[in-house]
Structure formats: structure tokens, C-alpha cells
From TrEMBL:
It comes from Tetradesmus obliquus. The lineage of its organism: Eukaryota, Viridiplantae, Chlorophyta, core chlorophytes, Chlorophyceae. The keyword Nucleotide-binding does not apply. The keyword Methyltransferase does not apply. This is Peptidase M43 pregnancy-associated plasma-A domain-containing protein. Residues 11-93 form the Peptidase M43 pregnancy-associated plasma-A domain. Pfam families: Peptidase_M43. It comes from the Eukaryota. Belongs to the peptidase M43B family.
Length: 103
């Protein structure tokens, strides 16, 4: 498997685990509700491939700057560092609803 510059330190694995736990991309639905269906991740118009534009605000009509450091975006690994509280809550609810045997 080849290495892709900027994406070879494990961030993609964390991102995919996020999907498995029911999380959507932070840029899902762009600037329009329901966005990624998580209340505390700011809206984001488009992915931020190959970069780390930390002060970008692609949805000025919505509160908050783009969640550039969120694991569910497409920033380079060195840029990403967090899930929001709402994402963790959604993942936990998803786990209890769909992943636990008999849950
Ligand atoms: Zn993804």
C-alpha cells in the first residue's frame, strides 16, 4: 500500500472508525440543515483536502468557523485532532442502538 503525503499517519483510520460509529462528514449538506446532523459541529461548505485552513468560514450565514481540526473532515492528518461532544454522543447512541448484541 502506497503512502499518500499528509494522510499516512493514521488519521484516515480514525475518520473511518467515526463513520462506523454513525458519524457523517462535517461538510455533509454544505451550509444547509441538517448539516452533519450533529448540533455542535459548525456548518462547512466543502472538504478541506490537502490543507489546514484553520480560520476558514465557508458558511458565514451559520454560526462558527469551519471545523477544520475535526476528524470527520478531509484535512491532512497533522491538522486533525478532535471529535465534538455532540459527535461522541451520537456515536455512543449509535453504538447502543445498532452495535450492542440485543441492544
Ligand atoms: Zn469519510
Amino acid at each position: 500500500m502506497g503512502k499518500v503525503k499528509g494522510y499516512n499517519t493514521g488519521g484516515t483510520a480514525i475518520h473511518e472508525v467515526g463513520h462506523w460509529h454513525g458519524l457523517l462528514h462535517v461538510f455533509e449538506n454544505g451550509c444547509s440543515p441538517p448539516g452533519d446532523a450533529v448540533a455542535d459541529t459548525p456548518y462547512c461548505l466543502r472538504p478541506d483536502n490537502d490543507s489546514c485552513p484553520t480560520s476558514r468560514d465557508s458558511c458565514p450565514q451559520q454560526p462558527g468557523k469551519d471545523p477544520i481540526s475535526n476528524w470527520m473532515g478531509y484535512s491532512v492528518d497533522s491538522c486533525m485532532s478532535s471529535f465534538s461532544h455532540g459527535q461522541l454522543l451520537r456515536a455512543e447512541q449509535m453504538w447502543h442502538r445498532h452495535r450492542l448484541p440485543g441492544g
